[in-house]
Amino acid sequence: MTERGMLIVLSGPSGVGKGTVRQAMMNSGYRDFKYSVSMTTRKMRPGEVDGVDYYFRTKDQFEQEIANGGMLEYAQYVDNYYGTPLKYVNQTLDSGRDVLLEIEVKGAMQVRAKCPDAVFIFLTPPDIPELKHRLVGRGTDDETTIMKRVRKAADELKMMSNYDYAVVNDKVPLAVERIEEIIKSEHLRVARVMDRYMAMLADTGLAD
Ligand SMILES: Nc1ncnc2c1ncn2[C@@H]1O[C@H](COP(=O)(O)OP(=O)(O)OP(=O)(O)O)[C@@H](O)[C@H]1O
Ligand SMILES: Nc1nc2c(ncn2[C@@H]2O[C@H](COP(=O)(O)O)[C@@H](O)[C@H]2O)c(=O)[nH]1
């Protein structure tokens, strides 16, 4: 039987660098996970590709997906819906591969309730001015949207204690190293629990 993959939730305020760190992990040779492409109702930014960056959908289509039970989690974030399609996550975990979600905090807490075995990592900026600097530097949002995102970040940072790990994204390669260590050590922990469980079954004569 294939061992189920691990669900990894990477969360943190908009602009902290989740996408940048995930891309660096994929480029660093640590490709041992599949990225779950989210669904959103927000407008496509220049350079974004439907099905790669997001599944871009209308509000009606998104709400239909919710009604069909097709979302693992979803949230409204600064005037738009964002959510994780359930089918891809389940199929990929069942195939034995780890899956990484890159989502905001309300959605992460829904995953926490549904999938307590997932690993929850909060990526935090060195400070709020640096977060704003990154959002401005990214050049994807107007001033009003940036301010909405920064204000939201102040609340999101308070949720950090609900996560298993907090990682500061000061320098991308350091953040990548820290996250890879977390994932590796979580795999070792699960393997140790499984070993103990199998030994216990063997003792009772129930293992085949
Ligand atoms: N450690 C870092 N130091 C300096 N700049 C960074 C760092 N990490 C990311 N950035 C920059 O910050 C900006 C925001 O990064 P990114 O888009 O990856 O954030 P995000 O958390 O994925 O945002 P969102 O949640 O809105 O998708 C980008 O311009 C990126 O190049
Ligand atoms: N709850 C979810 N949040 C998500 C998902 N995909 C992305 N996000 C978060 O939304 C904000 C804004 O993203 P942006 O692309 O407009 O900058 C950011 O915090 C993302 O992490 C999702 O599937 N579910």
Provide an overview of this structure.
- By secondary structure, the chain is α/β, with parallel strands linked by helices.
- The protein has a domain at 7-36 and 98-203: P-loop containing nucleotide triphosphate hydrolases (Rossmann fold, 3-Layer(aba) Sandwich), CATH 3.40.50.300.
- It contains 7 helices and 9 strands.
- The protein has helices at residues 18-27, 59-67, 86-94, 105-114, 128-138, 143-157, 172-203, and strands at 7-11, 33-35, 39-40, 55-56, 71-77, 80-85, 98-103, 119-124, 165-168.
- It has a 5-stranded parallel sheet, with helices on both faces. Strands 4-3-6-5 form a 4-stranded mixed sheet.
- A hairpin with a 2-residue loop joins strand 5 (71-77) and strand 6.
- Helix 1 (18-27) packs across helix 7 (172-203).
- The mean pLDDT is 94.
- The site of adenosine-5'-triphosphate has 14 residues, from helix 1 and helix 5.
Basic shape: globular
What structural category characterises the helix and strand content? alpha/beta
Give the low-confidence spans: none
What's the CATH superfamily of the domain at 7-36 and 98-203, by name?
P-loop containing nucleotide triphosphate hydrolases
Helix content: 40-55%
**For this structure, what is the CATH class of the domain at 7-36 and 98-203?**
Alpha Beta
Please give the alpha-carbon distance between the first and last residues.
Answer: 13 Å
CATH T-level fold name of the domain at 7-36 and 98-203: Rossmann fold
Q: Kindly state the mean pLDDT as a whole number?
A: 94
CATH architecture of the domain at 7-36 and 98-203: 3-Layer(aba) Sandwich
